Amino acid sequence: MKIGITCYPTYGGSGVVATELGLELAQRGHEIHFISYAQPIRLRGEQPNIHYHEVEVSRYPLFDYPPYDLALATRMAEVSQLYDLDLLHVHYAIPHSVSALLARQMLADGPRGRRLPFVTTLHGTDITLVGLDRSYLPITRYSINQSDGVTAISNYLRDRTMRVFDVNKEIEVIYNSVNCDVYCRCKNSSELRAEYAPKDERLLVHLSNFRPVKRVTDVIEIFDRVRKQIPSKLLLIGDGPDRSVAEWLAVQKGIHEDVLFLGKQDQVEEKLGVCDILLMPSELESFGLAALEAMACEVVPIATRTGGVPEVIEHGTSGYLADVGDVDTMARYAIELLSDESALRAMGKAARAVAQARFCSSRIVPQYEAFYRRVVERSS
Fold first, then answer.
1. Which residues are paired to 286 by β-bridges?
2. d(Cα 233, Cα 275) in Å, to the nearest integer?
3. Rounded Cα distance, 352 and 102, in Å
């Protein structure tokens, strides 16, 4: 199939999922066309069956804010016509599904009069934050209902969308995935571990876009409690608005030398693969992709019991869950695990087993392929 994929190319879960999905589909022989204002972060170099089309937004004195959604719709229609795409797959409802709807209408009114179906995947903040803004709620509901197919990344997100937006469209749950061949325990971990933990300290890690919803200061609070009991280092992967707050808190607590801010990383699997525990104390996660990537690397996730996270982590078996803000309990779980090497490694292996059994790309990508085929058949 020839598939157009649109996502936010920035450092966030939806962009990562969309890019990795496109790469997996390309490896399975599909022709993939990424359409966005910048090349997605995890799209590296030239790869077979992968094409990138930049959306250029013209700036006129008339517009305080250039209309990206209109430029995107135009580019979607152009690429679809030039390369004879079978469908568009947009990640994040606002504004991508609206742009896809416009592109579909433009093509239907064009010389060939063809109907280009589009699939919308809901990822979380497009529903829980942006879509709930009163100024966006009606257009979000409309674009979801007008989609030829809709998927959500968790049962939690599907149910919340159906309840809050009162949509009449069937929403299929297709979980996020991880490439279990790429994300695994680092085989030559001693050298890389020594780079971060020269005295053989324990390694904790946090991976996010450092937005307030990720509660990065809770990560610092948890680590501060762990460090008082067990020699350890904390790796913070990513960047965003709350980085400076986290840096300042680490300085205030006198632990800044043990807190390593690594910034944005292209190959996070290399860093995850040498760590012991992942901390994910988020206010809300519709799925928890960082936890899944850690689990595949045999890194035990300690996260909050919120949103779709319990669908990924089984408490006490493949990780631990606690209430939002309960840094004491999360620290206690970490200390207990880090004090018992055999328990830590056993839970790490159990976490990877869950990732392999339920969330590997080899299991999830065929679900998208089948969904695409159904959408195209219904639209023909």
1. none
2. 10
3. 42
Between CA 335 and CA 343 the distance in angstroms is 12
Report yes or no: 88 and 116 within 8 Å, Cβ to Cβ: yes
What letter would DSSP give residue 42? T
Beta-bridge partner residues of 278 = 205, 301
Residue 129: DSSP 8-state: I
Question: Reduced to 3 DSSP states, what percent helix, strand and coil does the chain have, rounded to the nearest 5?
Answer: 45, 15, 35
Superfamily in which the 2-177+361-379 domain is placed by CATH: Glycogen Phosphorylase B; (3.40.50.2000)
Contact 209, 236 (CB under 8 A): no
Query: How far apart (Å, rounded) are the C-alpha atoms in residues 71 and 229?
Result: 55
Q: What is the pLDDT of residues 274-291, one digit of tens each?
A: 999 999 999 999 999 999
E strand spans, the chain: 2-6, 31-36, 50-54, 87-91, 118-122, 149-152, 171-173, 202-207, 232-237, 259-263, 277-280, 300-304, 320-322
Longest dimension (CA), the chain: 71
Contact between 247 and 217 (Cβ < 8 Å): no
Phi and psi torsions of 27, nearest 5°? -65, -25
E strand or H helix that includes residue 144: helix 137-146
CATH architecture of 189-359: 3-Layer(aba) Sandwich (3.40)
Amino acid type, 261 = F
Return d(Cα 91, Cα 89) in angstroms, integer.
Answer: 7
What is the rounded distance in angstroms from the CA atom of residue 135 to the CA atom of residue 139? Answer: 8
| Domain span(s) for CATH 3.40.50.2000 in the chain | 2-177+361-379, 189-359
End-to-end C-alpha distance for the chain, whole angstroms: 14
pTM of the model: 0.92
Predicted confidence (pLDDT) per residue in 143-186, tens digit: 999 999 999 999 999 998 998 888 888 999 999 999 999 999 87
> Residue 116 pLDDT > 80, yes or no?
yes
Task: Please report how many Cα atoms fall inside a 13 Å half-sphere around the Cα of residue 99, on the Cβ side.
Answer: 29
